[in-house]
Design goal:
- The chain has 639 residues and is α+β, with helices and mostly antiparallel strands.
- It folds into 2 domains: 257 residues, no CATH class; 374 residues, Porin (Beta Barrel).
- Helix content is 26%, strand content 29%.
- The strands form 2 sheets. Strands 3-4-5-7-8-9-10-11-12-13-14-15-16-17-18-19 form a 16-stranded antiparallel beta barrel. Strands 1-2 form a two-stranded antiparallel sheet.
- It is elongated, with a radius of gyration of 35 Å.
- It starts with a helix and ends with a strand.
Length: 639
């Protein structure tokens, strides 16, 4: 049957000649110089003369694929065959299309056994099946996956840096690309993939060329050379397995997408979650009470809803039972675990916020409760994740971001210059927004406000300057008047009077490579106890993240710094009001360090295990206290 195909191809030049003579007689036009030049160098085959326009629109890439079905290279060995003249072309052309149809059906094969017959019985029919068309469309979509309007057309294979020039397929691809301008690459000169061009990627590029030649076949003025069709024959034969696999992979992907659409949680809402389990213990000197080993947890469910595709309404439910460990908490807030906090295993609404764009580079966020500044502004620390980053609260971010934090916080924030090198974030949060009492409400009670400028000229470097103003009229309860919940007890500035604070921070991050990121910060708070005096609090830290350490997805992390420390007060009167400060002292006497190391080991994309150790020297910034060691084994589930 393949010889019938060959005879059909042999008949094409004669038919072409007759058609051209009729065309010249009717239009009385001259042969373009470009055609004359090409005819002097190679034989040109006008495929559009053979296949009627109505049929060509349906065949597309199948023409190139049909030529590739020759039984043996010997059939193409004669570079200048004697082209016989055939009186009828319709039946032969139909048979060619049916051979193309067979190749499309081969792409549907479910196992290699179905491809074992090299000379199948070619059915003769006048129609291309819907299944074949669908397969070709699937291959086309795979070949164009990831392309967008921003991509530029590659006109030379030398621009595709990942393709080896020594491969014969390189020259074949170069010829097709430069002659038909048919493969699109990325502006940086690489082809799709993270490694040198794979056979599957090459097959997708080959499909792109077949599509381009199909479009030329549909153009009455276009010419496709016989040599190029023979090149396509070799390439299709070489990559037939990959083309078949591409079709099977696309089928499976489309099946999975259809299954997800049928069983999706909601058309507008995405459910995600994080579960943290921690086994922890702390060890100190003889003057401290030893803790028992504890098992703690925190569970979060996020319901993220989008109404426009660019906005997000987040509703978070949280259950936790992770109180602060007894030994550190008795003398200091240093060493608190990143996921610490307790709802006594009750479900609480932890985050209710709505984020939406104001323009391409500006967006706004409204917080109904549990508003935190670290969700509004970039903290520039790659370890800022309670489930996947630092094991301590201090190691997550500059503590000044936590000032004024409360589960009842409500307010709003605006980010200007979002996703640009220079970004400005401003926000306001009220701690008692639902209370209509005298010293409460949105604007008459405790509040905090932030302004931050972030400069990020490249992906490798970022610098931010932060200012936070807070007013706290409720010094009772955990966290004290500043509420950063880290550092020494005295650094909380817990008094029985309202406290006004102005905090200043400087954050920076430098990536030596995607795997090695060095970050750090310094923070200073000037706190005023109304009617009594002022107090100063300082903190600083450096963090190092080594990503993909030992295995992709793993992280080796280190944190070294000084947690918030009361460095001075203006008078003894204000010092006497500050809880946790020894009588007669006006500041924390010494400097204690927070030294932390952990290793996050990713079992898979959804489960990680993180052993970590925290070493506190001079806890509470007092050398009279023996060093404290805190060990934890954190397991994180994400879905």
């Amino acid at each position: 049957m393949s010889r019938v195909l060959w005879n059909c191809l042999l008949a094409i030049p004669a038919i072409l000649s007759a058609n051209l003579l009729l065309s010249w007689a009717a239009s009385a036009t001259e042969v373009p110089p470009q055609i004359e030049h090409e005819q002097a160098q190679l034989e040109v085959l006008d495929v559009s003369v053979v296949i009627p326009t109505a049929v060509a629109k349906n065949t597309q890439v199948q023409w190139g694929q049909s030529v590739a079905q020759a039984e043996a290279p010997a059939e193409l060995s004669n570079p200048t065959p004697a082209w016989p003249v055939a009186d009828e072309t319709t039946a032969d052309a139909t048979e060619v299309l049916e051979q193309i149809n067979h190749y499309s059906q081969v792409a549907q094969a479910e196992s290699p056994a179905e491809l074992s017959n090299p000379t199948p019985a070619w059915p003769v029919t006048g129609e291309i099946t819907a299944d074949a068309t669908e397969v070709l469309e699937q291959i086309n979509r795979y070949g164009n996956e990831g392309n967008s309007n921003s991509l530029e057309q590659v006109t030379s294979v030398s621009q595709l840096k990942d393709v080896s020039p020594g491969d014969w397929a390189y020259e074949a691809l170069r010829s097709l690309v430069e002659r038909y301008n048919c493969i699109a690459g990325y502006p940086d000169g690489t082809y799709r993939g993270n490694s040198p061009l794979s056979r599957f990627e090459f097959a997708a590029g080959l499909n792109s060329c077949l599509n381009q030649i199909e479009r030329l076949i549909g153009d009455m003025d276009a010419q496709v050379t016989r040599d190029d069709l023979e090149t396509l024959q070799r390439l299709v034969a070489e990559f037939q397995t990959e083309l078949t696999t591409i079709g099977a992979r696309v089928d499976k992907l489309e099946g999975r997408v259809a299954s997800l659409e049928d069983n999706q949680f909601s058309t507008t809402t995405k459910l995600s979650g994080e579960v943290i389990w921690g086994i922890s213990d702390s060890f100190g000197g003889d003057n401290l009470v030893e803790d028992n080993t504890v098992f703690q947890h925190r569970t979060r469910l996020n319901f993220d809803t989008s109404f426009t595709g660019r906005d997000r309404l987040r509703t978070r439910l949280q259950i936790s039972n992770a109180p602060i460990l007894t030994t550190p908490g008795s003398v200091t807030n240093e060493g608190r675990l990143a996921f610490s906090g307790s709802t006594n295993n009750s479900v609480v609404l932890h985050d209710l916020s709505y984020r939406f764009p104001l323009s391409d580079t500006a967006r706004a966020t409204i917080y109904a409760n549990a508003g935190l500044f670290n969700t509004l502004t970039p903290t520039l620390n790659p370890l800022d994740s309670a489930g996947a980053g630092s094991i301590s609260r201090f190691g997550l971010r500059n503590p000044i971001y936590n000032i004024g934090g409360s589960i009842n916080n409500a307010g709003a924030g605006v980010s200007l210059g979002h996703n640009t090198p220079l970004r400005l974030d401003v926000g306001y949060l009220a701690s008692t927004p639902a209370d209509s009492g005298e010293d409460a409400g949105l604007f008459n009670g405790s509040y905090s406000a932030i302004g931050q400028v972030t400069f990020q000229p490249s992906k490798e470097f970022a610098l931010a300057a932060t200012y936070i103003h807070a007013y706290n009229t409720n010094p009772l309860g955990e966290g004290g008047s500043l509420g950063h919940n880290t550092g020494s007890l005295a650094s909380q500035i817990r008094t029985n009077r309202p406290v006004v604070s102005n905090s200043y921070g400087l954050e920076a991050s430098l990536a030596f490579s995607p795997q090695v990121v060095l970050s750090g910060w310094a923070g200073y708070t000037d706190a005023t106890v109304i009617g009594r005096g002022q107090a100063d609090v300082w903190n600083y830290a450096a963090t190092l993240a080594i990503n993909d350490f030992g295995k992709e997805g793993n992280t080796l992390g280190f944190v070294v710094g000084m947690e918030p420390r009361l460095t001075g007060t203006t008078n003894a009167n204000v010092a006497s009001l500050i809880g946790g400060l020894e009588a007669g002292r006006r500041r924390d006497p010494d400097i204690g360090l927070h030294i932390e190391g952990f290793y996050k080991f990713a079992l898979n994309n959804n489960i990680s295990i993180t052993p970590g150790v925290i070493w506190l020297t001079a806890p509470g910034h007092n050398e009279n206290n023996d060093d404290i060691f805190i060990g934890t084994l954190r397991t994180t589930f994400t879905f």
